[in-house]
């Protein structure tokens, strides 16, 4: 069934499929870890158990999402050795150490404190528990730092030299490799997208429960916090996206040409094509709806600034215009919808109707998945726009793939599709079940007590009475009393 497909196309589809599944979980867990740290800090500062209840509610969801993100990420690393062995060999001296730094810093930090964060509330004290939560949040950011540095180097490679065997070797400074020209823009844009994604999910859950019970204080609080985040961060994200676009124009102009649909050069100002159907065969955008000279104003801040088109790029170096053109518009369109949600919430807050307007709540529920769609669309824009290279202008995708036949890659692709939809589909269904549960007072921890193995020292609730061991029931509520003497 794969005789008509090429091994390189199937390998790209396989990697794109697994990355898309993986990306949605870190995009959620990065922002959710910071949200948990904020809730924990607010509980310590104010003593209000409502914040503690929300922490426990979202900690259970974070545990599942974090686990699925780790598992889905491990699979990707194997593909570097199976489907992309030439790429791994050529770039290993540069990218290998950066990936190792991510494990040595971020992964160890997260693994060291995650258990304390999830299970240590009643064992280490509230301040140490807050420190553990903050360390997990910092660890997720450090992980994003290294992964995005690796990805950015593939787009704007610096600080390297080509060895005799064709490998990319580090040159004078690792800082030049790590802080390559596109890295700061990509880091800020991606991490901000993760925060917005989390805010939209939290806001959707809060709005869902407000539609059922407007008086629920936990739903009110999470919805209010999420709407503040959307209102404040969405405009910042749009500005960051603009700055990232200008950086891309400087270092990867053909990607911008594909995003804008500019098959032809425009010496007297380029139009902004809002919609249309890219026609790669005829080198034009059919049924284009455009605003004259607006693209030049956005990209060059000058209505009459000339902009080159894909007619200046050899055909074999052009990215797939249709995919990049539409994925970019999906990302931008959802970004402006997020801005609209934030502005709508500010209007409702100003009118004192934040918890009273069902239309706002329904809008927030509908926007719940928007962050995930936007980050996937942004990733497609970035990575497909880099084609036909894996290392921009230096290593072609066709020269990076392993010497495999199409049936071998196709068989593993089918296996990935079946297993991923089964495993991660079940995980996503379970996450939605957790979110459907109404948040309430006295939320339980992610796990009240770790499971004990047979043969260990009996729990202290087992008392020796007259030479006979007798187990008394454990009062979990009593154990849940914090240092201030308040019940959870």
SSE order and pairing:
Blueprint: H1 7-46, H2 49-82, H3 85-119, H4 126-155, E1 160-162, E2 168-170, H5 174-178, H6 183-212, H7 217-251, H8 253-260, E3 272-279, E4 284-291, H9 294-300, H10 321-350, H11 358-366, H12 370-384, E5 389-391, E6 395-396, H13 406-436, E7 462-465, E8 468-471, H14 476-479
Description:
InterPro entries: Cyt-d_ubiquinol_oxidase_su_1 (IPR002585). This is Putative Cytochrome bd2, subunit I. It is found in: Cell inner membrane; Cell membrane. It comes from Pacificimonas flava. Pfam families: Cyt_bd_oxida_I (PF01654). The protein has 14 helices and 8 strands. The chain is mainly α and 488 residues long. It has one domain. The strands form 4 sheets. It has a two-stranded antiparallel sheet. A two-stranded antiparallel sheet has the order 3-4. Strand 1 and strand 2 form a beta hairpin.
